[in-house]
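Sorry to interrupt, but I need a hand with the structure work. Leave the record below and I will have a look:
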Amino acid sequence: MQLTLDELARLVGGTVSGDGATLIRGVNGLGEAGPGEIAFLANPKYAPLLATTKAAAVIVADGTAVSLPAIRVKNPDLAFARAAERLGGDAWRPAPGVHPSAAVAPSARIGKDVSIGAFTVVEDGASVGDGTVLHPQVYVGAGARIGPGCLLWPQSVVRERCELGARVILHCGAVVGSDGFGYATEGGVHHKIPQLGIVILEDDVELGANTTVDRARFGRTVIGKGTKIDNLVQIAHNVSTGQGCLVAAQAGVSGSTRLGSYVVLGGQAGLAGHLELGDRAVVTAQSGVGKDVAPGVMMSGEHAVETRRHFREKAALARLPEALQELRRLRQEVLELRKKLGG
């Protein structure tokens, strides 16, 4: 596919400077783009590349000085994403149909224009919505419900009775509905507690590669609409999130913790169980949270505290060697004074 710069500007909601008839066939980064490709500048750190890029055109923020043909927008990241989707974002999409090696139960309900890849399994009573793509080696358990327009990459799993809304994306190895971590210990033996609930991923949720969301002990584990979860994240049983949360790689959320809407968890952040984080709370990378967090508060540190306090404590700790040296000097002076006074 190719579009003129004018056509692409209408698609992304921007205005053109330079030759609007410039033909665009693909997208790339500023350092890698060549003839026929459009790049973008969102971070001013990379502005020097505007002088050397071989891109045919560039997407920039309003007010950015550029000699190339350009599309000017308020949000270059979002505009570039839309351009990339139109100019090649569907290259992954296979034709509708069921591969001969797939195992689809007779009682499963398959919508229109669904693609089911090689060695994929869809069990009894499961349903798959219109336009959904199940790549090779996907597993959909008995009674599971997959909404329309979903994309499940190879070796992702949706276990029995779990539910995915519309346009959900599961990357390779993601598991929805694994058993929650629950045991009763007696006489040194850990006895498994059955996990009888389900997982619900609401519309437009995305799970990264090898991320796991555990089924509830009873009831539901719920990931709210539009939430995006990175690779290698663990979400425990009976957790719930509001809409639009962002969870970075290797974070972990313990059982029955509740996140409000638009909460952000940095990489390797860890949350204890049975907590509540208010709307728009932020937990920075490698922080451990053991108590509730009020709305809008940013938390940092191994034993997380409010971020401004955390940095004050870190600054004080950095001055500790000099403070100890001064304390030793003052102590020596006191001892010498006592000797002079005959103490």
Helices lie at 5-12, 76-88, 307-318, 320-340.
